[in-house]
Design a protein that fits this description.
Layout lengths: L1 H19 L12 E4 L8 E3 L8 E6 L4 E5 L11 E4 L4 E7 L8 E6 L4 E5 L11 E4 L4 E7 L8 E6 L4 E5 L11 E4 L4 E7 L8 E6 L4 E7 L5 E8 L4 E7 L8 E6 L4 E5 L11 E4 L4 E7 L8 E6 L4 E5 L11 E4 L6 E7 L8 E6 L4 E5 L7 H4 L5 E4 L6 E19 L4 E16 L6 E9 L2 E10 L2
Length: about 450
Amino acid sequence: MKTKIFFFIVFLVFANFLFSNMGFAQVCFSTPTNYTAGTTPRSVVTADFNGDGKIDLAVPNAGSNNISILIGDGLGSFSSATNFATGTAPRSVTSADFNGDSIMDLATANYDSNNISVLLGNGAGSFSTATNFSVGTGPNFIISDDFNGDGLIDLATANAQSNNISVLLGNGSGSFSVPNNISLGDRLIAIISGDFNGDGNKDIAATSDLSDLAYILLGNGTGSFSLSTSYTVGTRAGAIICSDFNGDGNKDLAVANYLSNNVSVLSGNGLGSFSAATNYAVGLTPYGLTSADFNGDGKIDLATANYHSDSISVLLGNGSGSFSADTNFAVGTALNLYCITSADFNGDGKMDLVTAEENTNSASVLLNCTITGLADFYSAKSISIYPNPFYSSTTIHTEKVLKCATFTVYNSCGQQVKQIKHICGQTIIMHRDNLPNGLYFMYLTQDNEILSTEKIIITD
C-alpha cells in the first residue's frame, strides 16, 4: 500500500506540473447567472449560514436598507432572497461568529445612519433583529478580526465622511464596545487586516480615494493602532486586499484604483513595510477586488469587478509577485458592478466568482470552468472542501459515510505532512497547525481503497 501511495503521489505532482505547463490552466468562467437581491446592492459576502456545508450569499442593499440571504444548494445555484432589515444604506458586510455559538453572524456598515448593524445567526439561515452600534460618519467598509488577542471577534469600519477608522471590541456575546476612532486621510474607502510586521498582532491597511494612498496602521495587540506610513497607489484608491502573492510568507497588498483603471500591487517585507506599487491595467472603474487561485496552478491570482465596463478582469499570478495582462469576462450591459468575491459554489474544487450589480438589483454568479488538468482527470466528486484556499482550518464533507477512514495530506514534493486516522462519519476538520503556505494534496482512503483525492491550498 505504501509503494502504491508513493507512486500515486509522484503521479499527482508530475501530472499537476505537466497540465499546468501544457496551457491547460488558462482561466475560464461560465456565463453569469443572476439572482435578485434588494435595491442597490453594494457588496457580497460568502459563508455557510445554515450549517449544511454549502456556501451561501449575503448581499447588503443600500437602497432598501436590508440584507439579502441566498442559500446555496452546493451545485452552484442559490435560493430566492430572504431579507433582513439593517440600518440606513448598508454598503458593506462582514461575517464571523460574534457570540461564540459556532454559527455565522453578520455585520453591515450603514453609510447614512453612521452605525453598524449586527445580526446574529440562528444556524438555519435566519438572523435576529439588528442591533446597531454607532461609529464614525459615513462608514463605507467593515471588517471583522481579533484585534486585541482575546480570541473574540472585533469589528472595524472605514468612515468616508469623518476621515477615520472606528474599532469596536467584541465581548464574545454579540455586543461591542464604544468605538475607538483613529484619524486618517480624506475619504477612507476600504480597509483590510493582517499581521504585516510578524509580531503576532493584527494590523490594518486602509485606502483613501482623495489622497490616492494606502495607509498602514500597526496594532499593539490591545486593540489600538498607530499610523506607520502610507504608500502612493493609483488614482482614486478603493478596494484593498492582502495575501501572499510571491510565496515568501509575508503579507502583500493589492489596491483597485477606480479612476486610473488599474490594480496596484505592493510586496510586503514582513517588517511592516511595503514596496512601491506596481500597476496592472484592468477594465473601466474597478470598484471590487478579490484574490484566489483561479486556474489551479497553486498561485494566487486577482480579479476585479469593473463598474463601467460591466466586466470582470482576471490577472493570473506567476507566484513571484507579478501578474499577467488581464483577461476580461463580460457580465452584461449597464449592470454597474460594485464588488466581487470568490468561493467554491459547486464543490468542484475551483474558485468561482460573485458580484453585486447596483443597476439590476442582483447578485451575479460565474462558475469556474477552467480545465485545471489533474482536478478534471482524477477527482471523486463526492466531497466538498470549504474554505479552500484556507488560513487556519478547513472542513471536508463527504457524501459517503466513512468508517475508520484515513485522511492523509502530502506537500508538492510528495512528502506526508499530516494524517488523521480512524475517521467515522461525513465531516473531517483539517487544522493548518504549522504548515507553510502552498499547494497540498489530500488523500482519503478506507479499507485500502482510494476514496478521493483533491488539491488544498493554504494561504495567509
